[in-house]
Amino acid sequence: QDRKSGDHFKVVGSQLKNGLFHLDGDSWKNIVLAYEPVWAIGTGETASPEQAQEMHAFIRKTIAEAYNNQIAQDVTILYGGSVKPGNAEEIFSKPDVDGGLIGGASLVASDFAAIVAAAQ
Q1: At 76, is the secondary structure helix, strand, or coil?
Q2: What's the CATH number where 91 sits?
Q3: Which residue range forms the structural domain that includes residue 56?
């Protein structure tokens, strides 16, 4: 719903600000963020690589505005929306996607191995 209405950036920005922006700059060295679109949770649907990149870039930009570019570039941002062997390489190729938070695909060893290979 938020994506269709164009509010998805506001929602994610608010989640970042309310959940993490009380941290000092040094604390970000220990943070790994994972983004998963609400509509992808448990559905098997995934964002396009371009949609994933768009949100990850927004997250990084929001962090840079609140802290600085170095912290934003150093933070690890994973994509968690139904990464599979068939889409992992393309998703992981995006500049602001640092890897994946793998769910159901990790239950099948060959699928998980293919995702790991795509990340290398």
Answers
A1: strand
A2: 3.20.20.70
A3: 31-119
